[in-house]
Amino acid sequence: MIKSILGTSAIVIMAAWPALAQNVDRTGWPSSFTLGTASQGGTFFVYGSGYGNLIAEELGLRVGIEITGGAMQNMALVHTGEADMGMTTLGPAQASIAGRSPLVPGLEMTNVCAHFPMYETPFHAVALASSGITALSEIPAGARIGFGPAGSTGDTYFPEMITALNIPFEHRNGDWNELGRQLKDGQIDVIGFAAGVPVPQVAELEASTAVNIIEFTAEEQALMTALFPVADYTIPARTYASRSAPARAVSMWNFAIVNCDLPESFVYEATRVVMQGNARMMQINAAAATTVFENWDKNTVIPWHPGAARWFIENGASIPAEMIKS
Question: What is the pLDDT of residues 26-46, one digit of tens each?
Answer without folding.
Answer: 999 999 999 999 988 888 999
